[in-house]
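Worked Example 4.2. Consider the chain below.
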Amino acid sequence: MATITPLLERARRASKEIALRSPEEVNGLLMKLAEATELAIPDLLAANAEDMARMSPDDPKLDRLRLTETRIRDIASDMRSVASLPSPLGVTLSKVIRPNGMTIEKVTVPFGVIGIIYEARPNVTFDVFSLCIKAGSACLLKGGSDASATNECTVAMMRRLLKENGWDENCVTLLPNGHDATTEMLHATGMVDLIIPRGSKKLIEYVRDNARVPVIETGAGVCHTYVHASANLDIARDIVMNAKTRRVSVCNALDTLVIDTALLSELPYICAPLADKHVEIYADDASYPVLEGIYPYLHRATPENFGKEWLDYKMSIASVNGLREAIDFIDARTSHHSECIVAEEKTAQEAFLREIDAACVYVNVSTAFTDGGQFGFGAEIGISTQKLHARGPMALPEITTYKYLITGNGQTRSK
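Applying the procedure from the previous section yields the following structure tokens:
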């Protein structure tokens, strides 16, 4: 069995070089990469077409895999945005002078080598590289086989650009396909500093359960939108439509509509636009009769239809008797990703914001905004649903660590 140890060693050496580069050099490289990406649009689209040809046209994940000229130009724009951001390195987080005169500073530094394990999302390759290089780290990419041709084309372009501009091409490494490479990276203590999985619940659980290297979880997105009795119905209708259908295969898409029984009669109005996208609705016992004969793609819900990340043109509906029941329902099924309330009543808004345990909690805003770019971070490396170190969209600050710098003039400790 071939080992990836030489690749890991080269990435470790490259990380030392990145740490010595000035912010101006890093930003210049990212601007050149953005330009090179736009020039490579024909090659990237050809490689992506090869990947897409292997996936069923009925697979909702096809949209995650697909690149278009517009999407590639948006990716290039995101890289320019990352270049424009302040460097996250060398930032003094705190500074204190102790009674004995010694100074203690807490300063941000790179992680070193960051490994990303992800599925069929070619944009992740660009986002990860731009954020990691800006944060002073080399990156190891373990992409899904569904996007192998696109990833190979992308990383070859990146490595070529690095070499042409006097950088170590091992600042970015695409690991070979297969589980052996994943397992070896998960066990590479001393060579890999951090691993971030992006993808299905199964993938994330596998990484968490098998890694010896520190892991930041980016959890699955089971997202709810609760329509409170005080909701503006036009706002509710627009938010439900956008959160469910903008892109169904992403983690911030709506999975369950939770609605007060006081508004059940308004369900046909709220759900009507979904029919244009052929969204299948799995309605509970109270909401099913309201939509029966009116909504064309209707099914009776089963318990398995709740707490489920659909990643498809499907969603469930649960009816509740008021705010307390809604919060309890969501709390029992949330993945702690993104949750929304549509309400005009301030006390309901405040209770939802205070009590819902999720990385991102919204009032009268679509959950589709859970995204590093939309938060002004330039791009994101993932959405963390855990509470240790990072939570929510992770960008530059979350992929740095820190160290303490202690200076003095000969202080010694007596006891």
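The longest helix spans residues 23-39. The mean pLDDT is 94. Compare this with Example 4.1 before moving on.
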